[in-house]
Protein: GGDEF domain-containing protein
Amino acid sequence: MFTKIRKISLESSILFIIFMAIAVLVWSNSFLPQYLETIALLIAISILLGMFLPTILISWVVIIIVSTGIVILTAGSVFLTVPERIFLIAIFPFFAFLTQLVHENILLRRESLRVMKHIKSFSNHVDTVTNFRRSRLAKKFYGNCIRFLRNNPNIKIVYRVALINLAHQEQFFQLNNREYFRIIASAANVLKKIRMPSEHIFYLDDRSFLLIFPATTFKDYDQINAKTEQELNKIRFRSVNSVYEVQFMLETITVNAKNVDKYTDLKQVLHRLHRKLETHIIKEYQ
Structure:
């Protein structure tokens, strides 16, 4: 809405300058025909300078030209009435400052578009609710991990890939989307506090948390996973008159030099993890 208002204001200002220039020339042609070319030249110069010079230089140019004009029109033998002299003196500063305002408006719009472009680029790469990187960067990072495993088969390193998903999240979202985003943000804060600093956390487009970590020992990693699930499931979903327990489910797989060909693409990993989460749900209902 703000951008539309600014756009209308800018275009209206340009039309106003064109209208005023035509009106001044028409009036000059009727009452000061002998100065028509001079007036047209003053309007053209003032518009050009107003578009390309900074405000401080415009101010100095206006002072110099107005001062020179006053001296010529008052000291010289010019057969004009006082209103006509004031009119000639005022033409240059009027159009110069009016055009300068339009120029600043154009620069402001250009800066606004640049900022909006950066915001859009940031939101495409980083989720604004969790402040975690999104699916595109997750895919790129996982590709780098696979490339490292393939290029260094003799290095004993494994990547633990975990997926955390909120059970029945669609129902929670439909019930109260604001509260839903609050518990997602709370879950993100839990992960920031509990997970290891070297762990890479992403928030995917399907509203799942993806964690990728070059594992040290499985025992330590499993302890952290257990603590993560425990803390996440302390979060409560609050509706108008009710408080609901939520369930965050966590499943992991290990990617190493032996099975790297099986999980070359992040889609394959996510498919496997989602299947494990579905099995997790089925076991709970049995």
